[in-house]
Design goal:
single chain; 359 residues; alpha/beta; Helix Hairpins; Heat Shock Protein 90; six-stranded mixed β-sheet; two-stranded antiparallel sheet; 8 strands; 58% helix; 14% strand
């Protein structure tokens, strides 16, 4: 680091040098002069002192007054919203230069923060427009598809009753009925995504909410070698949340975990706890994991890597948790498994952007 001279030393050092030299000259001169000549020298010395004081004032003005005026002007411009300013004295290699560099860095960070806020705002507006369009589309689809679908389902039931028990068409009929149920699920998820019902926030036991979700998920593993374990937090205070919606969040995550485990079997661990002032529910599985290139897209509507997936489950998870003022954290290693952690505030807060954290 180069040698630095502080502004105080810059202001005082010239004064000290002049004073010391003047004192030496004064002593040497006055020793060899008569009384009347000494008086004249004293007058000259006083005049010199006045000049020195004026020089000091000028030096202080140059070192301090000008930077302070410039800093005041630039702060006024920042207050008016101009974040493209910077002070010129930041090039100085002293304390004043440090102040200038800190000011320029602060303005740069403010500029970057404003740009990030504007980017997030544009993203949220785009998302709102997307959801509005999706709502209109979902309403039309529900009307145009559900009525014919109900008719098809009714016809299939009638045909099924008339078919003999030994008819090979019964297997095809069963597949058709399963496809009808799949279409109904897609429509339900689409409507829930596009037109979500308002949340009913009430203080409730998050352990009970998680337990209900686990009970429903276990019904899906009766014929598969998958173990779901639940670890409760008995010291957890009530959490203000919509129990039905959070149960839906946890059930979606549990069903994804079940689907990620192959026929050889595996384990799913659900833990309820608290961390950093938030209530947490983590769901860890020993499934196939998520490819790194897919992690950034898994919460986008209609994105899916499953053959029969709708791509709306995790989008619902993200929306519901965001409405609770929480966030979702994802950790996944291909071939080893995934962990989804849901963070919920103990008391409902206004939803904020950036509710998903992928690691």
């Amino acid at each position: 680091m180069p040698w630095r001279v502080t502004w105080r030393l810059k202001a005082i050092l010239p004064v000290l040098v002049v004073l010391v030299n003047g004192l030496l000259v004064f002593v040497l001169v006055t020793l060899s002069l008569e009384e009347h000549a000494r008086y004249q020298v004293r007058v000259v010395a006083v005049a010199g002192a006045v000049v020195i004081v004026a020089a000091v004032i000028g030096m202080m003005s140059l070192l301090l007054q000008h930077p302070l005026h410039e800093l005041h002007d630039k702060i006024a411009r920042v207050r008016q919203g101009d974040l493209n300013v910077e002070v010129s004295f930041a090039r100085r290699n002293d304390d004043i230069g440090d102040l200038g560099r800190d000011f320029n860095e602060m303005v740069r960070q403010l500029r970057d923060s404003r740009e990030e806020i504007q980017r997030l705002y544009r993203t949220q507006m785009s998302r709102a427009e997307h959801l509005a369009t999706l709502g209109e589309l979902a309403t039309g689809l529900a009307h145009e598809i559900r009525n014919p679908l109900a008719g098809i389902a009714g016809v299939m039931d009638i045909v099924g009753r008339d078919l003999p028990e030994s008819s090979p068409a019964r297997e095809v009929l069963s597949e058709v009925q399963q496809e009808i149920l799949q279409i109904k699920r897609i429509l339900s998820d689409l409507l829930e995504t596009a037109r979500p019902r308002p949340s009913d926030f009430r203080p409730a036991d998050l352990n009970s909410t998680a337990e209900h979700a686990v009970t429903l998920a276990r019904q899906q593993t009766i014929s598969r070698p998958i173990e779901i374990r639940l670890s409760k937090s008995h010291e957890l205070p009530p959490v203000e949340h919509d129990a039905g919606q959070i149960q839906q969040v946890l059930l979606n995550l549990l069903l994804n975990a079940i689907q990620a485990i192959d026929d050889a079997g595996g384990n799913i661990r659900v833990r309820v706890g608290s961390e950093d002032g938030f209530a947490t529910v983590s769901i860890s599985d020993t499934g196939c994991g998520i490819a790194p290139e897919h992690l950034a897209n898994i919460f986008r509507p209609f994105f899916t890597t499953k053959k029969r997936g709708t791509g709306l489950g995790l989008s619902l998870v993200s929306r519901i948790v965001e409405a609770h003022g929480g966030r979702v954290q994802v950790n996944s290693t291909p071939g080893e498994g995934s962990q989804f952690m849901v963070w919920l505030p103990f008391h409902h807060v206004q939803a904020s952007a950036g509710s998903v954290l992928i690691q």
